[in-house]
Design goal:
Helix 3 packs across helix 11, helix 5 crosses helix 13 and helix 7 crosses helix 13. 41% of the residues are buried. The protein is of the alpha/beta class and 334 residues long. 46% of the residues lie in helices and 19% in strands. The chain folds into two domains: 168 residues, D-Maltodextrin-Binding Protein, domain 2, CATH 3.40.190; 118 residues, D-Maltodextrin-Binding Protein, domain 2 (3-Layer(aba) Sandwich), CATH 3.40.190. Strands 1, 2, 3, 4, 5, 6, 7, 8, 9 and 10 form a ten-stranded mixed sheet that branches. The protein is built from 13 helices and ten strands. It starts with a helix and ends in a 5-residue tail after the last helix. Belongs to the UPF0065 (bug) family. It comes from Pseudorhodoplanes sinuspersici. Keywords: Receptor, Signal. This is Tripartite tricarboxylate transporter receptor protein. InterPro entries: BUG, Bug_dom1.
Amino acid sequence: MMSHKHAAASRLLGKCLALAGLAAIALAPLPVQAQSKYPDRPVRVILPFGAGGVADITTRLVAEKLGDKLGQRFVVENNPGAGGVAAARAVMQSPADGYTLAVFSNGTAISVNLFKSLPFDPVKDFVPVSAMGYFDLIFVTNANGPYKTLGDFMKAAKEKPGALNVGTIAAGSTQNLGAELFKSVTGLDFVIVPFKTSGDVLVGLERDDVQMGTEFYAALRGGLDAKKFIPVAVSGLKRGEYLPDAPTVKEAGNVDFEATSWNAIFAKAGTPPEIVATLNKALNEVLADPEVRKKALEMGIEARGSTPQELEARLKSDIAKWGKVIDTAKIEKR
C-alpha cells in the first residue's frame, strides 16, 4: 500500500506534468494561417515596363487602392527589358508566397513566339490572379486626307494594291502585329511601315508618308482632341466608352477581326491558392471602383478584373493567335 508521502509526491508530479503539457501546447508553433493573415508586410509588384507609361500609371493606381484595401503597401518596381525577361526572372527568383507579383500583358503572349528562346514559360512558371484592364488599338487617318472611314481606306487599298502605307511602332509590337492581323484577315495589299516611336508614326501620318496608323488611345489623345486625326475604327469587339463614335473594325470593315490588349497580375507558380483568392477578390473590388474606372478610361483603358481561369484562357488564346500572325508575317525571331 502506498504511503501518504508517496501519494502526495505522485499527485505533485501529475500536476507538474499536466502544467508542462499545457505550456508545450501554448508554446507550440501555430499553423501559418493562424500566425498571420496575408499580407502582413509590403508586396512587390514587378512591372516589365519603364516609368511614366500607361502600364506604369495604371498599375500604380491599382496598387495604391489594393494597399488601402488589404492594409499593406503594394510597391511597384519598374524592371523593363526585352521580352519582359528581367521582370519575370525577378519574380521567379523570389519565394512563391504572394509577396512578389508580376504584371503581364498581351506583350507577354507575343514574346512566347517572338523570341527564339524565352527563359520563362508564362503558362507553367506562373499562376494567373486577375486581369487589371483591357484596351484597344485605334486605327487612325489624317483628318485632312481622303480617307474619312475605314471603308474608304479598304476601297483604295483594293483599287491600288501595294500603294498605301500603314504606320506602326517596331516590328513585333502589339501595334505592328495588329496591323499585320488586319492585313491577313482582309487580304488587302498594303505596306506596313515600322517607326521607332509613336510620335514618329503620328508625324508620318501628318506628312502623308503613311495613310493610316495603328496606336493606343493614350498616344493619340492629343491629336484626336485637336482633330488632327480621325479614329476610323477600334480593334475590340465593342466600341470604347472613350470613343463611342468610332466603330469596331468588324463593324466598319465587315471582317472577322479582334485585337484586345490587356494588363494583368500573375504570381509565381506554387503560390498558395488562398493567397491567389485573396488577391483576386481584392483586385476585382478595386477595379470596380468608380474612381479607378474613370482614371483608367481617361487613358483608353477599361478597368476590369477577371477570374484566374478567364485570364489563363486569354493568355493561352493570345499565345496561339499572335504566334500565327508572327509566322504569317514572317517576322524574324529575336
